[in-house]
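Checklist before submission:
- one chain only
- standard amino acids only
- sequence pasted in full

Submission:
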Amino acid sequence: MYDLIVIGGGINGCGIANDAAGRGLKVLLCEKNDLASSTSSKSSKLIHGGLRYLEHYEFRLVKEALAERETLLNNAPHIMWPLRFILPHRPHLRPRWMIMAGLFLYDHLSRLKTLRKSNSVSFGKDSPLIDDIKNGFEYSDGWVDDARLVILNAMSARHHGANILPQSDCVEAVREKDHWIVKIKNNVTQQVTTERCKMLVNAAGPWVGDLFKNVIAAKATKNIRLIKGSHIVVPKIHNNEQAYILQNEDQRIVFVIPYENDFSLIGTTDVEVDQDPSTVKISKDEIDYLVKITNKHFKRKITADDIVYTYSGVRPLLDDESSSAQAITRDYTLEIDQEDDAAPLLSIFGGKITTYRKLAEAATNRISEFFPTMSGTWTKTAPLPGGNFSNRKALKEKLIKQFPWLTDSLLDRYIRSYGTLTFKVLMGCFSKEDMGKHFGAELYQCEVEYLIDNEWATCTDDILWRRSKLGLKINEKQKEVLTKAIDTLINAPDDNYQIKENI
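Returned file contents:
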């Protein structure tokens, strides 16, 4: 019997599984699709305090998120790094004193260690912004590869003994006195297995309410509102290393973020939806909105024809009866349901990626009420897999010494994806030829094999969009070859099978 079964393989579910397994609990996590296949891979890719949340008096949430930036940057320096943001001043939208007051709070609500304080900036002729914008502000937040953050938490949970089951749908959960009987269907084989646990965790994100209705057969204790956030990716519209935060007349903000070296990521929108979260797509109105606000600020104009990729995710926000989507709290609530000493149920409502570790820690603290022999908190100072280094330059020099035949661009991508796990990706490789078939965009067979064997990858989308973002650079023909290769590798008769050039 498991101590804990966690339903949901997003950042909150994987964070809780990792924390609980690290404290000695026997944990199983099931996810009906790939890990990070929904909301947790479709964010703005930011570790940020949430400057605009100050306008809604979310001081506790902002303070917690600001402190977490430093913790996460230390624990995962490969998939996260500091990023400076430029906020152009538009006096008719927010007065200078208001922005300065907000930035003062941003700098002082939590002590800065790695990140730099804010300052005022002026824009000259070489600025990518239109000439009418003369000055603004600059402040610090962080960048994160959101999907890899989920994967690394799942890998850490597995290292601590957790059983991680992607492509596995929880179809029924029934209380049986002091434990739960949980039926899990493998979506590949269609086989249904029955597991038992002392406590159940509903971390299904946008489906948290559906789980109550369709799986647990109980009434949800809180309501959520589903808010669609959409992004567009275009060829980079400026060469600066900073991101930009743009104000709009509707009081919303839009980020323009450097993305995968050659692109700009623009988003997000806030649109309330009432549909299956897995079916949401960006609308023409959202595209027009993002294009319009971008063109209001930058000299280089874009159109819908410039868009190379879009994605939309649904954020499950706690229903606080706010009148607009952007005003809804990004805070989280943890609810425990237990009647007459029956097996407990913990449900997660709301949350944001920046505070996932604190949410997981708080959730596991609540779980500890039912498992008094659990050990104490541990994740604040624990590096995630591949993050056990402090200096990127030194790690790169070490990799160059061992793998001098790697290109500089590939080395950089490996470091910011795998960190010290790069040595495992390249295990047994003594030349470029040893890396196996090249699929395009410097994706080699050795990396594909690593992702299949160690990170639960089973298809091209897993590899091209969640374990990496190489989908932006690989064409359809190359994708077809990769699809066949993945099938070959998964079904290969032995570990030494080599993919042939004529696949």
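Reviewer check: The radius of gyration is 23 Å.
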